[in-house]
Amino acid sequence: MEMRKEKADLEQLLNSLIEKGFIPFNIPCITNVSFLRRLWITSHQNDRDYKFDFSLRDLASKESWLWQFVCENGMIKRQKEETLIEFYDNLRWRTEIVYDDAEYEYRVIESALKDESELEDFLLNSIKLD
Description:
two-stranded antiparallel ribbon, 5 strands
C-alpha cells in the first residue's frame, strides 16, 4: 500500500510540473502521466494517442529536461552546499570546488549516482511545488 502511495505522489508531482510548463522529453500535447513500474506518458496529436514508456532513470536524465526545468524555476529543495577539498601537502596548494545544488548539472549527476531503489524518494524529496 505504501508503495502505491509513493507512485501516486510521483504521478501528482509530474502532472503538477506539466501544468506549470514542464514538457518531459520534449513530448508535445501531453494528456496523461502515470507511473507503476515505469513512467507512461500519453500524448494526443493529430487525432491519435501516443504512449511513451520511460524508466525512472530516464526521467532523472539530462534528456528528460526535468532538472533543467525545476532548477530554472526555483523548484529545488535546497540541501547544504557540499565542498570538495583537495589538499596537496608538498605544494601547500588547496583547491575548493563548491557545488551549487540548484544547478541542473549537479542534480543530474547526483541522481545518476543514486541507486535505483532510492531514486523515487530522491525525486520526491528534491523538488518543491509552491
